[in-house]
From TrEMBL:
Pfam families with a match to the protein in the record: Glyco_transf_4, Glycos_transf_1
Domain Glycosyl transferase family: 207-356
Organism name: hydrothermal vent metagenome
Domain called Glycosyltransferase subfamily 4-like N-terminal: residue spans: 109-200
Annotated InterPro entries: Glyco_trans_1, Glyco_trans_4-like_N, Glycosyltransferase_grp1
One Gene Ontology term of the molecular function aspect: glycosyltransferase activity
Lineage of producing organism: unclassified sequences, metagenomes, ecological metagenomes
Protein name stated in the entry: Glycosyl transferase, group 1
Amino acid sequence: MRILTFTSLYPNKMTPRHGIFVKNRMTYFDQIENISRKVIAPVQYFPLLGLFPGSKFHRNVQIPKVETQENVTVYHPRYMTIPGTSLIDAAGAMTSAADKILPTIYPGQETFDLVDGHYLYPDGVAAYEIAQKYDKPLILTARGSDVNFWMEKPAQKEKILRALNYARKVICVSAALKNRLIEHGISADKITVIINGVDRSIFNADQRPVEAGEYLLSVGNLVPLKGHKYILHALAKLPDEKLIIIGSGTLEARLKNLAQQLKVTDRVTFLPNIPHDELADFYRKAKHTILMSSMEGMPNVILESLASGTPVIATNVGGTAEVVTKDNGILIAERTADALRDALEIALQHPWDHSRISSDMRHLDWHETARKLHRCFVQAL
């Protein structure tokens, strides 16, 4: 089975954790016999902004156009965007970028059997254009904001629906996403729910400290979607607690300033994105992991925290309710600092069974995820 994976959500030399959840799933899939795979992971560029150190466009310039990751060749063609505008059709730009390199990737009679597209817009729409052009089956994976955000915009929704209707199978990482797609008119028979797995050799409670955790933990990009400001405001009302925030993003300076204004700087540690396997120790030593997102598909942060035996406090959005129960965390109905503080005051007094929290997540294994994915691909062919 020869697979062409198409998505901008894929790690690269400059941002090794970007889209790590996509790579993890496909890396385990690659271990199945008679599988070969190539990846097209387009990279945004804008000529002028690429000259300014510190901008993501300057970083993108340094991403190699071709690299090898665990015996899989990953191509990073450039597609142009104009930040803050919709003057350029991103899906069309991605498709054009891929079209230029496909004859080189598959010379002569070489070809692929199936297009594996991740994130419905613009990536999935571009994957559809490629699959249609080469008359190949298409599998699309919906991951969260592609459904919750982009399908609320009429122009983008029309393109996404065209891609979804062409696809042989649609994979959702949560039942909540599946239900949303059904509401948009996609047949339930076409949709398969495959929740992301967890590497149990890394994320487990085997080395969890016997004593109570040392701090509260938040892991995620520093962007409005993740709601870090609510966590800082709640921390200000919990004077005995410390917080570690792991992530980077456009709000970093603003959040550090907020910590100063709230006079919690001495109790907050900001850490940049760290190697994925090093996160496990942070989860194990934490009292609770907090996620205050406004929308989600199935947050890997929650899965990894629970696998590590650490209870979760999270907003009740997306697929969180499918894994967070009264035995492993608290779901917050309101996305406010007061609601978070109230939940933390309860959670910090609760006698959590950390071993049980971890063991209850044993079914979320990447090998099983890969087997389900393989069955889905076989059916599509």
